[in-house]
Amino acid sequence: MRVSLFIACYNDTLFPETGKAVVRVLERLGHTVEFPAAQTCCGQMHWNTGYEELALPLVARFVEQFEHAEAVVVPSSSCVAMMRDHYPLAAERIAREGGDGALVERVATLLPRVWEFTEFLTKKLELTDVGAYYPHRVTYHASCHGLRNLGLGDGPEKLLKAVSGLELVEIERKEQCCGFGGTFAVKNADVSGAMLEEKLQAVLKTGAEECTACDNSCLMHIGGGLHRMRAGVGTIHIAEILAGEDKSAAQ
Amino acid sequence: MNKAELDPRVALPFPKAAKASLRDAQLRANVRRATDTIQAKRRKLVDEKKDWQELRESARQIRAHVLEHLDVYLEEFERNFTRAGGHVHWARNDREAQEIVVAIAKQAGADEIIKIKSMTTEEIHLNDALEAAGIHAYETDLAELIIQLGHDRPSHIVVPALHKNRAQIREIFLREMHLTELGEKPADLAEAARKFLREKFLRVGTAVSGANFLIAETGGICIVESEGNGRMCLTLPETLISVVGIEKVIPRFADLEVFLQVLARSATGERMNPYSSIWSGVTPGDGPRNMHVVLLDNARTAVLADGEGRQTLQCIRCAACLNACPVYRQTGGHAYGSVYAGPIGAILTPQLMEMRHGESLPYASSLCGACYEVCPVKIDIPEVLIHLRNKVTQRNGWFAREAMAMKAMATIFRSEPRFRAAQRLARMAQQPLAKKDLPIVGQDTQARPDSAASWVKWLPGILGNWTQTRDLRAIPRESFREWWEKRRA
Fold first, then answer.
1. Does residue B408 lie in a domain region?
2. Angle, in degrees to the nearest 10, between helices B480-488 and A16-28
3. B residues 326..385 contacting A (CB < 8 A)
4. Quick check: B473 and A183 CB within 8 A?
5. Interchain pair A188, B327: CB under 8 A
6. Nearest to residue B11, comparing CAs of B465, B394, B346?
7. What is the reported pTM?
8. Is residue B385 part of a domain?
9. B297 and B403 share a domain?
10. Do A2-124 and A137-249 show the same overall fold?
11. CATH code of residue B110
12. CA dist list (Å): B427 to A7, B55, B462, B477
C-alpha cells in the first residue's frame, strides 16, 4: 500500500526518531511511504485553545496535502482526534462563511482514510505481530484522545504483547489523564503538575524501564517529569518499540 | 473560609484558587478517597446494565427535546400544578427569587425554615438572603448540615462535604452541637445529627426545597434523596417552597423511568435512590397546605439561546463528571469559585454569568474526555469547553498577548518554508538552555535510548510554567523532514 505519513509538527521538530520508526515499520511490512513535503500542523492547538478561526486555514491545508492519499498514517492520536472530531465542523464553518463549499465533502471522503499509527496496523492491516524485538520491561499509558476519542481499546497493547522479548506491565489507573492537555500544562501548571505527579508514581510503581504511548505529547510530559526527578526511567513512542529489531539474530 | 469565595463575581481565577487547594494534603486525600469509592460503585452498577448506552441516549433525547420546547412544557407544568392547588412564581434572577421566597416565608409567619439539599438555592445564595430578612435556615441533609455547622461551603454537587473526613466531621459536631462526648463510628455521627435535626423537623413549619424534576403532564415535583430528611421536610411543614431552575422540567411521568435509573447509578452508585418523593399540589389533611414553586431563570434562557452551549442545560446534577475528573481529583470543588464545581461547573458557571465572570473556568480542563464518557445525558463537556474558550478569546481580542502569539504560530504553520525557518530558529534559540545529562553514579544512563538527548530545565516567561515541575526534551539537531530529504537524495 502507498502510505502517506503525516508526522505532526511537534514530532517533526522534537521527536524525529518516532517518524523514522514509523517509516521503518511500514517499509518492513512491505508498504511504500510518502511524505507530502508541504505539511505542517493539524491545527489542534489553535482549535482547542479557543482560536478556531486560526485553525481553519490549517484544516484546508491538510486536506489539500493529503486528499489523494491511499492511506494517511499519523503517529499521534490527538491529531487524529482533532481531524475526526473537528474537521467536519471546521469545513462546515468555512463553507458557511463563503469559503470552499466543497470542503465538507472533501473532508468527509478523506477522513475514513486517516489512521492513527497503531490503529492502521491493527484495524486496517489487521496485524498484531509486526515482527519486532525489544527486550525491555515496558508499561503502556493510554492517552486520553486515543482511548476515548479514537476508541483504540487494547489494540496498542496487543501489538506490544506480540513484541519478542518485551515484558508488558500494567499501570494503575491507566485511563487517568497525565495532566498534559496542551496549553493546559502552562495555563494551569500547578494542577497539571499535581496530575503528573500521580502519573509518575504509577509509572514508577510498575518497575518498568520505560513508559510508552501512542502520543509523544503525553510522553513529553511524563518524560519531562521523570527526567526532572532523575528517575532513571525513560519514555518511548510505541512506533520506536515496534521498529525494534533483533540484530544478533539477523547476523 | 470566606463565604464569598463561591461567588463567581468575586472568586479568584481557577489557577490561583487551585494553588490553595493543592497545598491542603488532607483535602486532596479526602477527595481522592471519596471519588474513588463513588466511582467504583457507579462502574459496577453501570456494567450490570446491558442497555446503559441506550438509556443514556434516551435520557439525552428527552432532555434535548425539552430544551427545544421549554416554553410549552413549563406552561403545561404551571397549569397542572396550579389546578392541583399550588402556586407558581416566575423569577428572572437570583434577587427576584430571594424576594419571592422571603415574602412567602414572612406571610407564613416564619422566622425559621428547614431546608432540603438544593444546589439551586445555593446558586442564588438563598440562606444569606433569608438571614438578612431575619429568617434562619436549617440545612437538614447530613452533608449540608456539616457544611453549615462548619461555616464551610459545598465542594461537590451531590456530596457537598466530600472534602471532610469522619474525624473532621466529629470535631465540627462536638463544637457546634455543644456535645461533651461523641463516638467515632458513622452510626454515632448519624445519631448526633438525627437528634439535632429531629427537634427542628417537629418545630419548624416552613420548608424550602429544590427539585430533581418537574413533571409537566401531572404538575408533579420529584425529589430523590438518601437520608429521609427530605421526606420529613416535604410532609411535616404547613408551607413548602420549591426553588427550581426552568430547565428541570420533563414531559411525562413515564420519563422518570429513564431518569431515575440513570441518576441514582451516576450520582451515588445505587440502583435506586432510597427515597423518591413526588408531590402534585395540595391534599387536604395530608402534608403542606401551602405549596409554592419558584421557577428560576437566572440566565438559563441566555444559555438556551446559544446553540452550542445549550446542551449544558440537559444536566441532571448527578456529579458523575466531578468524580471522574482528574482535575477535580487534585483540587476538590472550592477552587472553581462557584457552587457548581468540576467539569459541569466549568461550563455552567461562566454561562450562568453570561460570560462576565468565571472566564478561567473553561480552561480548567485537560480535555481528557472522562466527563463526557460518564455523563448520563451525554453532554459533550469538552466540546462546550472549547466553545466557551472561543467566546473568551473573542472578547479578549487580537491584541491580547496570547492571541498575538497564537496568530504568529498560525502564520508560521500556513507556510512550509516559514515552518522550517521557525524550527531552525527555535533550535538556535534553545542553545544556551539545552544541556546534556551528567552521569548518575550507579545508573547506566548511557544505555537509555534517549541518553544522547539534551534537556531544557528552565524557560523564560509563561513557558517557565512548564519547567517549574518538568524538564523539556531539547530540539534535536535534525528534524524529521530534514532526515527524510537526505534519505531521498
1. yes
2. 40
3. 326-327, 329-331, 362-370, 372-373, 383
4. no
5. yes
6. B346
7. 0.95
8. no
9. no
10. no
11. 3.40.50.10420
12. 19, 53, 19, 8
Shortest Cα distance, chain A CAs vs residue B205, angstroms:
46
B35 HSE (CA, 13 A, CB side): 28
- One digit per residue, the tens of pLDDT, for chain B of length 489 reads 445 479 999 999 999 999 999 999 999 999 999 999 999 999 999 999 999 999 999 999 999 999 999 999 999 999 999 999 999 999 999 999 999 999 999 999 999 999 999 999 999 999 999 999 999 999 999 999 999 999 999 999 999 999 999 999 999 999 999 999 999 999 999 999 999 999 999 999 999 999 999 999 999 999 999 999 999 999 999 999 999 999 999 999 999 999 999 999 999 999 999 999 999 989 888 899 999 999 999 999 999 999 999 999 999 999 999 999 999 999 999 999 999 999 999 999 999 999 999 999 999 999 999 999 999 999 999 999 999 999 999 999 999 999 999 999 999 999 999 999 999 999 999 989 999 887 766 655 555 555 578 999 999 888 999 999 999 999 999 999 999 999 988
Closest residue by Cα to residue B316 from B239, B223, B390? B223
Q: B73-103 in b/e burial notation, b at 16+ Cβ within 10 A?
A: bbebbbebbeebebbbbebeebebbbebbbe
Nearest to B379 by CA among B320, B329, B297: B320
C-alpha cell of residue A198: 500521580
Residue B373: list chain A partners with CB under 8 A: 148
CA-based nearest residue to B315, from B346, B349, B286, B344: B344
Q: Name the residue ranges covered by the structural domains of chain A.
A: 2-124, 137-249
In chain B, how many domains are there? 3
Chain-chain contact of A195 with B330 (C-beta, under 8 angstroms): yes
Q: Which three cell numbers stand for residue B428?
A: 538556535
Same domain (yes/no): B469, B406: no
Which CATH fold would you assign to the domain A137-249? Answer: Rossmann fold (3.40.50)
Question: B39 — alpha (psi -120 to 50), left (phi > 0) or beta?
Answer: alpha
Same domain, B214 and B138: yes
* Exposure string over B292-303, b if 16+ CB within 10 A, otherwise e: bbbbbbbbbeeb
Please indicate, yes or no, whether residues B124 and B205 belong to a single structural domain of this protein: yes
Determine the structural domain holding residue B462 and report its residue range.
430-488
Does residue B366 belong to any structural domain of this protein? no
Q: Give the ipTM of the model, two decimals please.
A: 0.96
Domain presence at residue B197: yes
Cα–Cα nearest to B156, from B5, B335, B396 = B335
The answer on B406 and B481 residing in a single domain is: no
Say yes or no: B123 and B54 in one domain. yes
Torsion over CA of A140, A145, A147 and A151, rounded to 10 degrees? -140
Asked if A220 and B472 come within 8 Å (Cβ–Cβ), the reply is yes
C-alpha grid cell, residue B316: 441532571
Residue owning grid cell 408533579 = B220
Give the domain A2-124 fold: Glutathione S-transferase Yfyf (Class Pi); Chain A, domain 2 (1.20.1050)
